[in-house]
Amino acid sequence: MPSSRPARPSRGPLTRSCPPACCVRWSAVLCTVALAVVTGCSSSTSCGDAGAVDTGVSSAGGAGGAGGAGGTAALAVGCSDSPPGALDYLDDMEDGDARILGRDGRVGQWYTYHDATEGTLNPDQGTTPVMESIPGLRCGTSAKAMRVTGSGFSDFGAGFGFALRYGTGDAGTAMELPYDASRFRGFTFWGRVGDPSIGTVRVAVGDKWSRPDGGVCTTSPSSGPNACYDTFGASFTLTTTWQRFSIDFGQLQQQTFGLQRPGLDSSNVMTFEITIPPAAPVFDIWIDDVAFYQ
After folding, report:
1. What are the beta bridge partners of residue 245?
2. Homologous superfamily of 20-43+83-293 in CATH?
3. Disulfide: which of 9, 102, 123, 214 matches 129 by Cβ 3.0-4.6 Å?
């Protein structure tokens, strides 16, 4: 249970025209969103990196490779298996930048975060992640993935993720906005770890009831009946072999330290995050092809 979890600013869409000093600092989210508006990104238009919705038929066949320590390839299993349903990709990472796919009003970018205790994190909090190349490809087709490495952090730990819809709120400030995912049954992703690394991580979806920008929960105190960040999620054990992980929204559970709800509010989801447990001796987490499924 977190003891002093700070209110983490979420990252808006990455815009290549944004000056570097603007894009890499948490305090400059307003600059990013303002430039996104200028370039035409909105809740009603698809902006940047948009692709076709997956029909549910996998085109990959056979085992592929993956990146690991020293650039060696790792195995992948289930490459020719059918996905859990028709997929709508949140990000396939293939463009290499931090932006998620701009489809169906979704606007956001990958970020990392950690607590205030001693530790290392790469990419570090406050920087803009770049997708990692997968040596040998995964399943013979996927060339890039989100990779996060580090160790330590003894309070609530570290993590990474993205907002699903980042824009301007009613008060004119940049913030996370709700996204309606009620037509989907759950989420899926491909994952693996390097060697050495911890294996178990928690993957969670934040909604308006668990995120500060939802305007319902509170960030202080950090635990109690109204506390933020008690998201709905599940633990997954990753190995050094790539594999697909899938779960229905109805199977997700809270950690019971904050504001309690009967279930995920899929009509008002706000974030997708992978959380790394506190005091991890070393972690090397690879995530690819994050999608909702119907």
Report:
1. 189
2. Galactose-binding lectin (2.60.120.430)
3. 123
